């Protein structure tokens, strides 16, 4: 029984570390889009492609998270928040591209 408790604690710690890193990645990408928004020149095709690929990778990672039974409500809420933030990030990116392309 103690091994199972230790295993769940270890998995929860790994899960939270993973979530921390996803949140950091979202912040980096958000900051990158904000920087492009402030620029007077249109972002390059390569930049757009790189950002879209990162959003796709984050989308795969965030939406493929299955919630282990031992997660707390806060952890579940954090996953839901991450999914919402990712959707918002994509909308922000789309609006930035529209504005800079016109």
Would you write up a description of this structure?
- With 102 residues, the chain is an all-alpha fold.
- It is 83% helix and 0% strand.
- The protein is built from 3 helices and no strands.
- It has helices at residues 2-38, 45-63, 73-101.
- Helix 1 (2-38) packs antiparallel against helix 2 and helix 1 (2-38) runs parallel beside helix 3 (73-101).
- The chain is elongated and about 60 Å long.
- The mean pLDDT is 91.
Profile the largest sheet.
none
Unreliable spans are none
The count of helical stretches stands at 3
Helix content: over 70%
The percentage of residues in β strands lies in under 5%
Order of helices and strands: HHH
Give Rg in angstroms: 17 Å
Distance between the termini: 62 Å
Q: Looking at the structure, what is the overall shape?
A: elongated
Number of strand segments:
0
* Whole-number mean pLDDT: 91
Q: What class would the helix/strand composition place it in?
A: mainly alpha
List keywords for this structure.
single chain, 102 residues, mainly alpha
What's the arrangement of secondary structure elements?
Layout (H helix, E strand, L loop, with lengths): L1 H37 L6 H19 L9 H29 L1
Helix pairs in contact: 1-2, 1-3, 2-3
Task: Give me a quick take on this structure.
The chain is mainly α and 102 residues long.
């Amino acid at each position: 029984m103690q091994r199972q408790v230790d295993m769940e604690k270890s998995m929860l710690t790994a899960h939270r570390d993973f979530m921390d890193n996803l949140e950091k990645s979202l912040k980096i990408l958000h900051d990158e889009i904000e920087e492009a928004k402030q620029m007077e020149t249109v972002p390059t095709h390569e930049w757009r492609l790189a950002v879209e690929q990162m959003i796709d990778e984050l989308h795969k990672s965030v939406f493929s998270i299955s919630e282990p039974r031992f997660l707390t409500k806060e952890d579940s809420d954090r996953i839901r928040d991450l999914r919402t933030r990712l959707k918002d990030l994509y909308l922000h990116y789309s609006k930035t591209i529209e504005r800079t392309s016109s």
